[in-house]
Specification:
277 residues; alpha+beta; two-stranded antiparallel sheet
Length: 277
Amino acid sequence: MITERKTNRYVVCPEKLIENSFTSAYDSASDAPIITKPDLAVTIFSCLSMVIIVVMCLLTAFFESKKPEMIWLIIAGVAALLTIRIVYKHFAALKTYKNANSEGTKKFDFKAEYKGLFPADLPAEMPAAEFTRVLAPMQNRQKKDMYNNAIRDLISKLNTKNNPNDILCKNITLYGELMTQPKKRYYITGEDGKIVVYDSDFMDPKGELVCDPDDVLSFGSYANYPSKINGKGVKVGQDAIIIEIKTGDGEEDRLYLEAHANDYDRIRKLLGARKER
C-alpha cells in the first residue's frame, strides 16, 4: 500500500539545536573533562536487570531446594548491592552535571550569553532554510571564537538537514499530488520498515510517499525495462537505474523512478537483491 502525506523532514527545533551547538563548541574549547548528563534509561534498565537477578536467585534458593543454598543468597546479596550502587552513581553523576551547569558557573554564563545572540521570538519549530537565514548575518561576527564555531556548526547541521545523504532520484511517471511533473528530484530512503520517497525541494516540499517494501516490485538497469515506461517523451539516461513501485491493483499502475548508476550499491542494499531485474 502506498500513501501520500505531508513531510516535516526539513523542519527543525531551534532551541534544541542552539543548545547542542553551544555544548559541542564549549566542550571542544574547554580543557576540563566533559561532564555529560547521566542516561536515566540506562540506569532504569540496569536496575531492572539486577532486580530480576535478585528475584531469580531468591526463588531458586527458597523454592527449588528444601533448604536455602548459601550461594544463591550470596549472589542475590551482591546483585542487591550493585543495584544500590547503580542508583547512587546515577544521582552522584546527576549532581555533578547540575553543578557544572548551574547558575554562576562559567559554562552557564557563556551559555546565557550565547543564547542571547539569537532572536527571542524564535518559534518552537521552523523550516531549516528559514533558520539558516536568521543565522547568516551572525556568522563569523561574534567576539568569541567559541560562539563563531558554534554558529558554523549550527549552519553545517542545517545544510545537512536540507541536503541529506539519501539516494537521489527523479520521477519518470506521475503520481498523486506530489509528482505532477516529470523529472523532478526526490530522495528515497528506508524508515521504520517502509520505503519513503520525499520531495527534495527543502524550501517548499510538497510531501512524501510511503510504501511497503513489497510494493517496490523491482529495480535494475534501464535496458531491462520496456521503452513504454517513458512513453510520454521523458528522456532517461541509458545507464540509469530504474525503480519500479506498485501504486494500484492494475497492471499499468506503476511509478517509475530514475536513479544514478553510481548509486547502484546503495539501491541494492536498500531494496534487496531479490528485487533486481
